[in-house]
Amino acid sequence: QVQLVESGGGLVQPGGSLRLSCAASGFTFSNKDMSWYRQHPGKEREFVATIAWNGRSTSYADSVKGRFAISRDNAKNAVYLQMNSLKPEDTAVYYCNFFNYWGQGTQVPVSS
Fold first, then answer.
1. Residue 56 contacts by C-beta under 8 Å, 6 or more apart in sequence?
2. What does the alpha-carbon distance between residue 7 and residue 18 come to, in Å, rounded to a whole number?
């Protein structure tokens, strides 16, 4: 069955960096576009970034453009989210996604 397992979350100070990972299994990863979403406390889930199946195209939410970078390794069935210059408003649970499949999420609190 499809599994998406996020990792790498944790408390980080404003201005800091964090790299999230998503390990995928149960489907042909190498031909799927993959995305990251996040959900702030008390709010709906929102789009963060997406990457094409071959890694040649990426897209970002305006709120993270220039600070976050999505990448993938098709040999490892993994997608990553490098987050730099983190702000308190980046505090959220971050989810890996493709089609209607979601991981369990990883929490990223940004606080001093």
1. none
2. 11
Strand partners, 3: 25
Amino acid at 62: D
Per-residue pLDDT of 32-78, as tens digits, reads 999 999 999 899 999 999 999 999 999 999 999 999 999 999 999 99
∠ CA 40-19-36, nearest 5°, is 50
**Beta-carbon neighbour count of residue 44 at 10 Å?**
7
Residue 92 exposure: Cα atoms within 13 Å on the Cβ side: 21
Contacts by 28-33, CB closer than 8 A, 24 or more apart: 29/74, 29/77, 30/74, 30/77, 32/98, 32/99, 33/98
Instruction: Report the SS3 class of residue 57.
Output: coil
